[in-house]
Amino acid sequence: MSTTPLTSRPIAPSSPASSVEPARSGAGSADLNLLRTFLAVYRAGTFTAAAPLLGLSQPTVTSQIKALEKHTGHRLFDRGPRGVEPTAYASGLASRVAEALDSLADVDDAVCASGGRAAPVHLAGPAELLCTRLLPAVAPLVAEGVHVRLEHGVPEELIDGLREGRHDLVVTTRRPRGRSFESTPLADEEYLLVASPQWARWIAQERGDQELCTALKEVPLVSYAEDMPIVRRYWRTVFGRQHPPIGPALTVPNLHDVVAALTRGAGYSVVPRSLCSDHLAAGRLVQLDDPCDGPLNTLFLVRRPGSRSNPDVARVHDALRADALCWSSPPKGRQKS
Length: 337
Prior knowledge:
- The protein has about 325 residues and is an alpha/beta fold.
- The chain has 2 domains: about 30-115, Arc Repressor Mutant, subunit A; about 120-335, D-Maltodextrin-Binding Protein, domain 2, CATH 3.40.190.290.
- It is about 45% helix and about 15% strand.
- The protein has helices spanning about 30-45, 45-55, 60-70, 90-115, 125-145, 155-165, 195-205, 210-215, 230-240, 255-265, 275-280, 310-325, and strands at about 75-80, 85, 120-125, 150, 170, 180-195, 220-225, 250, 270, 285, 295-305, 335.
- Helix 12 (about 310-325) links the parallel strand 11 and strand 12.
- Helix 1 (about 30-45) crosses helix 2, helix 1 (about 30-45) packs across helix 3 and helix 2 (about 45-55) crosses helix 3.
- The model is unreliable at about 1-25, about 110-115 and about 330-335 (pLDDT under 50).
């Protein structure tokens, strides 16, 4: 279950004095700590992931869930291969208690923060977007006193970080699943087929009546991975073929390195517009074609539930949404991958 924990603030375990009454038909007067533990597990998807976020051991989390099950008279979770799945009763219970528990957490955080600075905002996204998109959006807030901790990762890592409470906000190319994720589409990222001006002129001279994809077999291909995921997707979407006729002549660690290699004449590749727009404007790169059905990825801004108590999270969230209005938007009609 791809959901996120209630809060990363440790919650004190129930004391022996707060004993749980025999089974009942509802949550009743269940200890708030039991309900907090339940909501953390519900959002985290595993007892193990919820434990450190609650400041508890995994056995304590298990015992508290069992105590709440005894109290309510209902099973709350079914174990699965990748964690636990909530029962129908648990889903209903979560919908009833989440808002109230989050409000209590907001009050606690406000009291804790009243004597000092708000906690840093933990923002994460794809490495290729850090300098081109995320940093320009949050830099003005940093100048105003907001503290930000910026990290990068692949989509799976980013969503796991939300689930485990390590990130407050992530920008990702995949909409996460889960009841508790708050996802907002930011922009569509367009992918372009580009090369240096020298190679673009050579292709134009040598192509003749050949299709562009056929003429490119004589040009070195640069990729950030041996299996060429972005290039292959472009070939399928635009040329209707599974992959280029020739594999990469040069592989590099990331897309930034791909662009650097292309501007120095290494060959051609497919890269996000955000990474090459300045080079295209300056003439250091040339777009080799402009199809009406090029591949797109939608960027999503995702917020961790329970992060609303930090006002700076909302400021960063709103700044990213506002800045995304100025991000390059491709013409209508392009196909999303």
